[in-house]
Amino acid sequence: MDGVNEANASDPIPVGEQIRDLRKGRGVTLQALADATGKSVGYLSQIERNLSAVTIPVLREIAAALGVTLNWFFQGAANAPVGERDHVVRAGNRRRLDFAGTGMIEELLSPNFSGTFEMILGTFQPGASTADEQYAGSGEVGGYVVSGKLELTVGDKVFSLGPDDAFTYASSEPHRCWNPGDDETVVLWVLAPPSY
Q1: How many CA atoms lie within 13 Å of 108's alpha carbon, on the beta-carbon side?
Q2: Closest C-alpha among 25, 21, 114, 8 to residue 71
Q3: Cα–Cα distances in Å, from 17 out to 1, 50, 129, 165, 173?
Q4: What is the CA radius of gyration of the chain?
Q5: φ, ψ at 167 (rounded to 5°)
Q6: What digits encode the pLDDT tens for the residues 95-141?
Q7: What separation in angstroms does the CA of 168 have from each of 27, 139, 140, 152, 156?
Q8: Sign of CA dihedral 56, 59, 65, 70
Q9: What residue ranges do the domains of the chain occupy?
Q10: Quick one: 4 exposed, middle or buried, by C-beta within 10 A (0-12, 13-18, 19+)?
Q11: pLDDT score, position 78
């Protein structure tokens, strides 16, 4: 096998393909998924074919309808020596979630989902956002802007953040984040309890 094929074999599976595989594996039709999520069959079909972007709120709805959490969509090796598995995540072993078409990639920094919080490294391309509109969840969220610019909206408050700025909010408050800059933005997220 040549180097190109080997590299392609280890690439994460696009989220749309994961949704399609999970849906088919559960024996759920596109129409049934559309009914459960309130989304159109055409839109869900485009997501499955990686032709339409899928935001965090939409992926949460799809995951709930298919009986999984967002954790299910993180891809990657997540391999570690036995003595490190519950404590260390090496840079080359991070599990990834690529929100196809949104310009967002998230990498799981927590070694597992059994703790009281989880850490995620989020990368926003210029213009990328967590959602088109504000959405709410549960638990608490904290973040630290590693690089780039981040605009955080919580309710009717808008915060312009840059490198070394940190923030927290209750996930139950309507919120949205996006990269208003011309460069990539990297954010370290902490979610409690683990909600992915």
Answers
A1: 23
A2: 114
A3: 24, 7, 21, 36, 31
A4: 17
A5: -155, 160
A6: 888 887 789 999 989 887 778 999 999 999 999 999 989 999 889 99
A7: 40, 11, 7, 10, 15
A8: negative
A9: 3-73, 91-192
A10: exposed
A11: 57
Question: Is domain 3-73 in CATH 1.10.260.40, yes or no?
Answer: yes
pLDDT digits (tens, 9 = 90+) for 3-42: 333 333 345 568 888 899 889 888 899 999 999 999 999 9
Tokens 């080997």 -> residue: 6
Dihedral Cα 140, 119, 13, 90, nearest 10 deg: 180
Q: How far is CA 106 from CA 27, 76, 114, in A?
A: 28, 12, 19
Count of CB atoms situated within 10 Å of the CB of 156: 7
Please compute, for residue 15, the number of CA atoms within 13 A of its CA located in the half-sphere on the CB side: 31
Q: How many alpha carbons lie under 13 Å from residue 156 in its C-beta half-sphere?
A: 0
91-192 placed in CATH 3.30.1460.30: no
Q: Distance between CA atoms of 90 and 14, rounded to whole angstroms? A: 22
> Could you tell me the pTM of the whole model?
0.75
